[in-house]
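tool_log.txt
---
The assistant was asked to compare two proteins side by side. It first ran the structure predictor on the initial sequence, then on the second. Raw inputs and outputs are pasted verbatim so the downstream comparison step can read them without reformatting.
(1)
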Amino acid sequence: MEKERFEWLSLARHLASEAGVLIRSASESVRSEGVGKEKSCSVDLVTEYDRQAEDIILSRIRDRYPDHGIISEESNPKGELKKVTWVVDPIDGTTNFIAGLPEVAVSIGIIVDGKPEVGVVYNPIRNEIFHAVRGCGAFLDDRPIRVNGGITLSQAIVCVEFGYVRTNEGAVTMLEPVRKLLNRSVRTIRMIGSGALDLCFVACGRLDAVYAGIAGEGWYPWDYAAGGLIAEEAGAKLCKVDGSEFSIFGDSVVCSSPSIVDDILEVIKPESRN
């Protein structure tokens, strides 16, 4: 399967770049065109460019690998899981995209028997491409990357994403760990707006940890599949918010430099929030 994985990587990089051309060309005009449409949550936006980018990616996958499965956020979120399955988010960070913020990504993960084996995350606005093949390390623009090692919580930049939970109970649940982190003198808190890039930023040391899923605001397979593998291959520790084993089909994630993962879990574990 070694040769196949690198063939998949080559195609995934090509497709991410091709979709990225569309996204980059649209980024300057999207806000004035009024292309946003509502998803199931009123604050979550989907655009025509989302669908166009998805069409570029999915059509090529189906032509090249008709026997592979596809899970894609926009058109096929409950797609059939096969021996080899492509997990695609054509524009991760749609709200950023519409607002003109640069943290936008094309995310393509390839899983075999439910386990990520290849991951590509491309930010077409900044023209940065992250990739990993299981067992072969993680890379940014073909340069090896590693998580920050040996840091303490007081040195850490921790990322949170509040998603689309808007209830008072949910807001309190999400804000309480932030308060605790600040009280424990975390260096700072950030919110990027793209789960795939959050994971990649931990991988390359721009962030030291990210967590999501403490109040029902957890992510989906297309958020985790590529970026999670990239972070893992860069030396990050991944688990669920209760400390149990991470899965891309789960409802929460902690992705952290190994030296502070216990500190993060101590703050965000369910029992610590009671």
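(2)
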Amino acid sequence: RVMADLASYEVLTEDLGGDILCSQISAKEGTNLDDLLSKVMLQAEVLDLKANPDRDAQGVVIEARVEKGLGTVASTLIQRGTIKVGDSFIAGEASGKVRALIGFDGKTRYKEVGPSFPVNIVGITGLPEAGDLMVVAENEQVARELAESRTKIARERKASSYQSGLMESLAGLFSGEQKERREMCVVVKADVQGSAEALARSLTELKLENDEAEVGIKVLISEAGDVTKSDIAVASVTPDTTVLAFNTGANAAAMDDARALGVPIEFYSVVYDAIESVESRMQEVLSPTPEGEYVGAAIVQEVFNIGGTGNIAGSKCQDGIIKKGSNVRVMRGDKILIESKVRTLRNFKAEVDQITTGDECGIGLLDYEDFEAGDIIESYVVNSK
């Protein structure tokens, strides 16, 4: 099936008479990995792909993380040149001096590594992002100045983007087309920087909206490492901020501060679980549910106009009970239209005090008549404090 799909995009493998090498592998099962590597080596030889080891090193950051006792560690694939212990380098907005080169087994240490070699680099100030280019610099001062320059440029871009968004918001506001914008703030911590970036990017792309408002996500922090006291302090400044810990933990001091300040910390190992949890809270921000204990709900099936009484919602009780005089909210889709009280409650022609699951009834509310078929009338009891 995969081969056929590729062929539909004019990508023909050797098995189908094309010139593109193909190896059917499974990273999970470890199937055909040797075949894949041999084909990669063959292709490199045919294309005469070579790298010069006798030059300053250049590579790409695969991921970055914070490890106890080592500080920031960047898993890097050297593309060309040779990197040595003691070399100064820059990676994105981070810079540093190589204190150690550690193999992917976590034990082997090297004095230098050359092209096509994956290695963990220790000695970085800051936290580079996955995909950042790592380049050896002339000295530590040059590397630091370059990193500061890149940080300044990135800050200016963010400021420019913010101003542009602000101008668009103001233009929409004055034109009367702007919806109310609500934000939900989160702090993202993960085991590696790549995971933190991926989760933060997915969250910032989430958008929910209705006729009146739209809700987006604002990521206050997106970093690798355990949840710390400083993360809790940042989260506590903005009300209702949640800390998301992905494949990482929280130290005891952070947990104590979180409990004292009422900052929730949620732990996840699956990205989709974190996203679903955030989406459900966004829905609550978009259409806040009034405080109260749920009692029952009815669905509007038809709307009747009763002379002198107004519109009555011909409904069927789906769950629980609904009482005459009880507090209700009318919901249309994910939007709460109004909160009101039950003015009249009829079962057939008789006025009744309550209805239960399965009963058909006519519901009249105080100061509201704009019912539509499919609306949900939800009854609740206000909690006493």
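---
observation on (2): The radius of gyration is 30 Å. The first strand starts at residue 58 and ends at 67.
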